[in-house]
Amino acid sequence: MRSLTIAPVNPSSEAVQAEAIFTAARRRRRRIRLTIGLIAMVLAGSAAVLLANWPQHSGAPGRPEASAALRAVQLPAAQVAWVDYNGRLHIGSLVTGHQRVAAAANSDPVVPLIAAGDHLYWVNTGGTYWQIQSLDLATGKLASLGFGMAVFASADGRQVFIAQTGESLLEFPATGGRSRSLSRLLSGFQTASSSRPAKLAVWNPDSRRLTLISSGVSTNGGLLGAVTPAGANYSLVAWRQGSCYPSSCALEITNTATRFTRTLRSPLGHGFAYGVAFSQDGGELAAFANTLGLSTTPAPAELAIISTRTGAARLVPRVSLLMGQDIAWARWLPGGKMLLVGGLTSSGVVNSETLSVRPYYFVHGRDHYIEDSQDVNYSAVVIKR
Predict the structure, then answer these.
(1) What is the Cα–Cα distance from 200 to 46, expressed in whole angstroms?
(2) What is the DSSP string of 69-122?
(3) Considering only CA atoms, which of 257, 301, 303, 265 is closest in space to residue 282?
(4) DSSP label at 371?
(5) How far apart are CA 22 and CA 8, in angstroms?
(6) Strand runs (DSSP E) across 241-385, as ranges?
(7) 8 A C-beta contact, residue 169 and residue 183
(8) DSSP class of residue 274?
(9) Phi, psi (deg, nearest 5) at residue 71
(10) Per-residue pLDDT tens for 192-233?
(11) In this structure, what are the phi and psi dihedrals at residue 148, rounded to the nearest 5 degrees?
């Protein structure tokens, strides 16, 4: 089996590139942590997770090669959208590999796009005031939805939510219609994190109740990901305490119905990077196990496919992603067996059953460093139409 390995493009300047990658990664990591704190992840049509501030009573150089097992595999007929480092929104076909620029989004390329109701949503940060914008995938029409700090959607894609401030939250149908404010229902909680200790809670709009998940989330911890399996009456929430940072932080997986929490420890002993992703049925979690402790030099992380039922982890050593710091990304593709994953200088497709690997690029060339190539990156979202 061959390896999908991230490495500097120019071996003669490894030290210079390593420092540049690390500096950029520090900025990227701060933006991702801020975004995780800002966005309330909606789990089901009616369940949401909030990182809430509790009231205080006041690889080797060269191009990676594909493993033979994945060369002939038919990729699902889905599209992927992302925002490049020049602020342009791309849409690409997984089957053909062709991509096009669909709009000027001026959105942060480390913040995932939102797909709901045949639309894409993002925060345009290019002006004096941040604006929530959308793209109609059928007509190509752009629309502005007003001021907002973050936008996210329900798991069924029928509702879209806009965080205008840390304490102001709007909800509106993805198909269009009037919005309603949820701020009064969430009084005492915030959708934005601060330097104060926080509590992680699940909000159910149907019952109008908040369920506490953890009361010990520090500023370096919080929500990492969530999923509601189709037809289920529960959601799974991935989070971490954060008090362990910068040591080896474990992942916590909580079932919102039973409130049972399973602790997942890295098989490599150095904790996990940001960038986890649940499979559609919630049975597996894609995570990135750090190969070294956090330091001041770029280090790779290995993809791990973890059973949420048993906690057993299967490493995919052929996917070793150079990150600069502990951030990578993964997106499950339709069908629930394959993932699109990436880091700073490479991306690829992984079969979660066979652990086979195939490099995958929409933008072809020798330089796959995402800030140069403008290829698929952290902002990626899979469009299921």
Answers:
(1) 17
(2) HHHTPPPPS-EEEEE-TTSEEEEEETTT--EEEEEE----TTS--EEETTEEEE
(3) 257
(4) H
(5) 12
(6) 251-255, 261-264, 277-278, 284-290, 300-307, 313-322, 329-332, 338-342, 347-351, 357-359, 381-383
(7) yes
(8) B
(9) -60, -40
(10) 444 455 677 776 656 667 777 877 776 667 788 888 888 888
(11) -170, 150
